[in-house]
Task: structure prediction
Amino acid sequence: MPFDVVRGVLEQGLLWAPMVLGVYVTFRVLNYADLTVDGSFTLGAAIAARLIFAGGDPWLGTLLALAAGGVAGAVTGLLHTHLKIPALLSGILTMIALYSVNLRIMGRANLSLLRAETIFTDAARWLTPGIAALLLSFAFVVVVLVMLYAFLQTELGMAVRATGDNEQMIRSLGVNTGTMKVIGLSLGNALCALSGALVGQFQKFADIQMGIGMIIIGLASVIIGEVLCGAPTVWRALLAVVVGSIIYRAVVSLVLSLGLAPTDLKLLTAAIVTLALAFPVLRRHFGWRTLARGGSAAGIERRG
Amino acid sequence: MAGEPWRGVVALLELNGVVKVFNRGNVNEKVALDGVSLNLVPGEVVTIIGSNGAGKSTLLNVIAGVYEIDAGTIKIEGREVQREPEHVRSGYIGRVFQDPALGTAASMTIEENLAMACRRGKPRGLRRGITREERELFRRRLSLLGLGLEGRLTTKVGLLSGGQRQALTVLMATISSPKLLLLDEHTAALDPKTAVTVLALTERVIRENNLTTLMVTHNMEQALKIGTRTIMMHEGRIILDISGAERKHVTVGDLLKMFEQVSGNTFNTDRVLLTRSF
Result:
């Protein structure tokens, strides 16, 4: 495989990895099917792009994107926990609202950042040329991984994990599970928005449509990672998610090179996720033996 | 006597005219608690019996704050708590449920589960979730269970048996010394041998920590053996409350007779009938 292709796959996988980690936090850790991510990914790109377009500091833009994603996630959480709107609908409401918000932020349907100063053009000045973007996105993923892992080991992080595992139990230990959901959703969407900001700057444009199907891409990556690497510990699960993100991009690159039309990509992704989610049913129906190694009984149970 | 000294001490738990109605104004309306009043002095261990639908579990659930009550007051150490949400009351009330799966987080390790229990009622921040000293404490406490769990601190709880999980839940419910312990038929889902082990463990931690306890059970033998006082419920009311010398001489047969006299019904629960032969 030519070096360019490998580099491209790694770059894409790492740029989208924070988004996949965000989906992992909401979907797996919190056990909440959060559709906000479609909107918060674009939100991140929109904020960074708008600020850069106006001549602002790209690093500040990236940071602002992260914060805005956190706010978006918190809104979904509050709709669900305080206004008692069902989980799925809360996410959809925020996602739809963000469509308008994102258009307001960008002022138009897409913003080009050609010749603008981004964190990647900045990094190219002090990192090895050619692989500057790769190194920078790698650095982002390492920092996010370490911080996310550290958070999940704190008192608060453990309470968030327990909320996704057994709400009744952690409430009986004196934890406000509503607050934990807001924190988890906020964290997950902050990561999605960060990813959006990175992707927008890397491809040098932000587009109102760029977040569509993010939740499914995230799920596909999470599932691929779990099946290939297993998730016996929190650390292994997080690494598996990043590996899943990269493998997903490799698969995309492969099927595109085999002649699949880029417009059919979402159909393919949806098919992958459907197969993965339906796997327990299909296995029972056809009497297959289990394929996945590792992976806790609880994980399999939850997946089923 | 609201909050007043009672028998020389402030009641740890005081229920006054507690009413709970499910599906009010609906054809399915059900009066689950019909004016329940109850006082528990500190350190008192009370067992609750009654046929299905008598309101035993509802009683524990309104005390824990799972359901809001429709009338009456609930006081803990003289302070009204009936308006406090469940997670706030959980700060000082330990609970063990019938289903072993409900009391623990399956995807988390034994030490993580215990560490979360240690932080009952305390604000949770960005401090390390488990400290080294806690690990030592957990090892010591787990070794007392005699289940070999002290060497498996990083094992996921989902891999344990129901009995092991329930023993762990008892430990979790009591490790931070709550003011009140609520046990809702916590050995009913276990096999007889494991049930005996878990019950012995429960009695020991109650005694060692001098915990005020309310324990719902279907086993009349158990109800009379454990604790110092037994309450019988029927159709949302307490119909019998025996303690002291009176309770000492009561047999399961007497209890059933008393039930029939007071309620005008026969005690017709399969599960209870089974315990008659003991």
